């Protein structure tokens, strides 16, 4: 009778890491690793509605994750510890690297436009769920909403956000388009 070795903390850690979806983004403070599995949207994306369809559309998920990325790039995430990096003095010559101030400003501008497009009520909800990663139940409790209404309001907010970003589940061309009739190489120039 063979016995399997006991599961150790190291094995458990490897198991947990293998099931996480990670993306690394560059921020002014350095690279940040985002665990997409910790997003409340991922939980909702795995749910189905009464007809068996996914509760959130791909455009709604993408809009929420884009909002989260801009939130992170804008430096709005709360700091969880002390930054031990030495202050930069002197530095490299101008133009030698990426100007992170531009990245932060652009991310804040995108967030401001998105929040303005969805309105103040949806914007606050999106900040809580997509930015601060609050769970839907916590948002319902904080706002005094009845149970199971938070996910419906969040779906409406994500739909408005997807429209603001110009995202849709189906690609559409111009209304007058007759479609592509043939692919041809560019005409050769007479020379």
Mean pLDDT: 76
**How far is the first residue's CA from the last residue's CA?**
84 Å
**Percent of residues in β-strands:** 5-15%
Rg from alpha-carbon coordinates: 23 Å
The structural class is mainly alpha
Q: Record the strand order, biggest sheet.
A: 1-2
Q: How much helix, percentage-wise, in residues? A: 40-55%
**Residue runs with pLDDT of under 50 for 5 or more positions:** 7-11
Number of separate strands: 2
Q: How do the SSEs run, as a string of H and E?
A: HEEHHHHHH
Instruction: Enumerate how many helices there are, as a single number.
Output: 7
Largest sheet: 2 strands, antiparallel
Overall geometry comes to: globular
Explained architecture:
With 191 residues, the protein is mainly alpha-helical. The chain has a domain at 19-77 and 105-165. The chain is built from 7 helices and 2 strands; from the N terminus they run αββαααααα. The protein has helices at 9-18, 40-45, 58-73, 100-118, 120-131, 136-143, 150-165, and strands spanning 22-27, 30-35. Strands 1-2 form a two-stranded antiparallel sheet. It is globular. The chain starts with 8 loop residues before the first helix and ends in a 26-residue tail after the last helix.
